[in-house]
Please model this.
Amino acid sequence: MDDQDGGGYGRIGNLPDEDPTLTRVGLGTPMGELLRRYWHPIARSEQATPLPLEVRVLGEDLVLYRDMSGTPGLLTPRCCHRGTTLSIGKVEDQGIRCAYHGWLFAADGQCLDQPCEPDRGRNKDSYRQPWYPVVEYNGLIFAYLGPADRQPAFPRYDIFEDLGDDEEIVIIDHFAFGGPVEAPCNWFQTHENAMDPYHVFILHNAISGPQFDPKLEIWPRIDWQRHDWGVTATQDRDLPDGTTLHRVTEVRMPTMRVIPTPTLSVLGKTNNLSWALPIDDSHTHVYAMVRKPKEQPPQGLPIYGGEKRSFAPTDDEHPLYPGDYETQVGQGPITLHSEEKLSSSDRGVSMMRRQYKDQVELVANGGDPVGVTYDDANALVSVIAGNYIIGPDTDLETVPLPESLTQR
Amino acid sequence: MDDQDGGGYGRIGNLPDEDPTLTRVGLGTPMGELLRRYWHPIARSEQATPLPLEVRVLGEDLVLYRDMSGTPGLLTPRCCHRGTTLSIGKVEDQGIRCAYHGWLFAADGQCLDQPCEPDRGRNKDSYRQPWYPVVEYNGLIFAYLGPADRQPAFPRYDIFEDLGDDEEIVIIDHFAFGGPVEAPCNWFQTHENAMDPYHVFILHNAISGPQFDPKLEIWPRIDWQRHDWGVTATQDRDLPDGTTLHRVTEVRMPTMRVIPTPTLSVLGKTNNLSWALPIDDSHTHVYAMVRKPKEQPPQGLPIYGGEKRSFAPTDDEHPLYPGDYETQVGQGPITLHSEEKLSSSDRGVSMMRRQYKDQVELVANGGDPVGVTYDDANALVSVIAGNYIIGPDTDLETVPLPESLTQR
Amino acid sequence: MDDQDGGGYGRIGNLPDEDPTLTRVGLGTPMGELLRRYWHPIARSEQATPLPLEVRVLGEDLVLYRDMSGTPGLLTPRCCHRGTTLSIGKVEDQGIRCAYHGWLFAADGQCLDQPCEPDRGRNKDSYRQPWYPVVEYNGLIFAYLGPADRQPAFPRYDIFEDLGDDEEIVIIDHFAFGGPVEAPCNWFQTHENAMDPYHVFILHNAISGPQFDPKLEIWPRIDWQRHDWGVTATQDRDLPDGTTLHRVTEVRMPTMRVIPTPTLSVLGKTNNLSWALPIDDSHTHVYAMVRKPKEQPPQGLPIYGGEKRSFAPTDDEHPLYPGDYETQVGQGPITLHSEEKLSSSDRGVSMMRRQYKDQVELVANGGDPVGVTYDDANALVSVIAGNYIIGPDTDLETVPLPESLTQR
Model:
């Protein structure tokens, strides 16, 4: 094969392909339109305040604020009158007022006042600032950036229902336990990592020293399962005490990855899940939602190898103790699928790509993608990821086994 | 209307239009050619020294220096011999010498010496460094960047003539009283602001607290007048003492805006005027020329709202107490006319745009734009802007009233 | 001529030409392909360590490392498996291992291990990371980035052969004696300077004060000679003692410039030579190799003019005491040949350009450029540059005179 010739000369093609169908997130792009059919977390609730905040979501620059009545609003920044940014607007009881000529807009974009026009705007009802609907849920602000007639019901998740008095839900902005919260790379390469269990043995162990629970060093039986709603990976490890550690991770349309804590400090079904927010084509923010006892820290956090046992490596330490952040950002701003050599251990990655391409095509053909419902009664999602210990007395009905997982 | 649908999805067109006819300033662009038919201030006199200074004017990078005989010169930086920048050249009695091979150029570009050539350059007369003519006037250096056969007479202004012994003229680099002197936005959106009196009641009062004289808080009768040479706005306020404050502002081809001090510390005809220098398509510098008594500060400066009463807000204070700088820069590097919704209060803005488009077309068709004269005897300009108090005893002949203003 | 009209208006063409045939260095460009037929210095030996180093050579981003057995390797950074950068890989006894999934590559790119694949990679022999061959020579790492079947013998240089016990060879990264070691400009404009002896009298004397030995202030007879392998310049100066200082400088394919020390502290044949490394189209690094007595500093270094007598001017001092760095960087990132006016004193520059264009064409037509040999026995290069003193007793056979130089 041509790999075998004597060097790198001419090996880098002129037009390597980053797989634009899967990686572009802008308006009108294939994946961008798929993503615009779901709700996305765009900020923590406490970031929506009377001081307007500039946010970028799916490549769109927006202004987030919360008016004095407590209603959050998400508007395009360029005032529809003369174009000054609403990021310097003044928030009022109802809406935000442009600093230049005072047009006032409600959270649904409706113009409420035009103080320099006769009668404060005889036609003001006909002006509307471009806006997006938002929902607050457990400390996160979610927004829907898609077509108005396709706005889905807002989904809830079983693991965050029926909270006990001693429990709470917290939001953690992080990038896979160790790294800056915003990663300068495409969201999809961060997403694929969730269906790549093999890298744990290399990156999180052999390369950087054990970063997770020692039990995860035991080599498992690994399999992947495709579902309507996403992909799961199962890892089964025979533990010294005769039980089996059955670990299930999942990715779920559109950007959710459910990774039970790798410190194994929570057993059974997972207590957390994460969303990747595609800021734009080459920047990603990860929000994690964690259910926990009020008196305890969120969960066991991974440690770093060698002499480094820290959650937040310095710039100098990143290359010495690489983790998820370093390897995913190290694939470049948008990784090049055309330059890869996928192997048998990458089957989960391939499975994900096929599924996302199917959903992209479905949306392009006018359909509704998986997981979208317009009925609030159907909007409760049941996740299955977890660290399950299977012993002789375990009721297998309570465990999502590979066999059952593949029954579609 | 389509504004009324449910959100921002798809609202941002792919090709919003910044109105390139009005906003581009480069060589060969419509407005660029109109601007190249006038003299522009490019630096304060004290900035022209034997240490060459890099300046950018209408998108062209140039080198300004003053030779030992006191003559300022404005040359293109790339030496016509081998291309080294003259910004590291050595200024001599007559001209500037390139540091690489020593070619010496006069302020009119003429090559005076080629020390490495036989007989120090037998053909040196045939080499000329690209250059532009400059004129010094009241502490500013003006340059003409247009075609040589269309170089107009240098204009003077009546308000700076016949200076008394106790008077002086000073130059203030500022951006509309509060803000960095260089604004990262297109010059035309800064220029339009001068014909937008309504924003004063919002931006400079309701939003940021009173920034100007309290009398300006009185709601006026506002009108605009188009003239051959520009546009004026008149604001008439009935004062408590029975007199009328008749305030006139003007914009004048090509980049002049004449705004009588908004602190009302100078009554009658204005004591100052300003030029916007288009540095390039997205950067603007404003030079103000002020006539004043030697013993007094230039004029009352505006104060800032809330607890902030400063001429120079910090970076943190800019969004909290927005002023002209924030709202004009907040329109983006080049604002998008296609995304605006001009209303009745924007009539002055519309009037300006029509006039500039007319002049652009006139120049494109080979004509000379308004205000250009080739006769020094006709080069004295009489401005009309001012803060005029009209009482029962006022001689109305001394006041530029709207009726007279509209007689063309 | 049109230079004579009244100013700079319209003088800057829309498409000035930087002579892309000579200045572009990327894969597939005319000069890029010529350069890819030679070995280039890419780093000092001590920079190749077990900590991978990112380097850029001819516009290609690469990773340099040295494995635990001492072998240096130069690979493309994007791992051929999933694309993570090998700059965060772990160096082992033989090769470098990707941090993500552990593929191990030897210095010749061969994949040696795939730990996540069955049997650690049954087909691993068929995978090869793009790589380039490297050679260490006298403290520099050289690499060959061209087609495998055209890899030339590695050249040696007579002036570095047969080192005495009291001698050593040192590497100096510098930019022509004064300036940062990396210059933000195209390599070719730095290279031309070596055939431009006239600038010495201006730049290094009249402009910045005497930077070299006072004898170089004497105006010489200057001539240039074209050879198969490059171009030489000769300068003959009649010294007060009746002898002649015969100074010869040379440029040699592809990027070598041999400049005998301008401090004249070494007489006879030169003790040093330099390579310009084209980092990319607009960045250049210069490596100098110097032979010297162990007990002495490398050689006399030039001094700076005026009050400044320093090898390393500060940022503020660069424009005040310009040297080679300032004038070459001052030509812009890539100088514009189309805007030049070459004169009689630029004959050496013209000669170089013609020769490089001939060689570019030769390679484009499938030939081997000058200086390339595939036989190690022919790979010893004899340089001729030097500061030769010719007196009545001098054996002229030992001096490379212009007459002999032009015999081809």
User: Anything to note?
Assistant: Residues 303-311 of chain A have pLDDT under 50 and may be disordered.
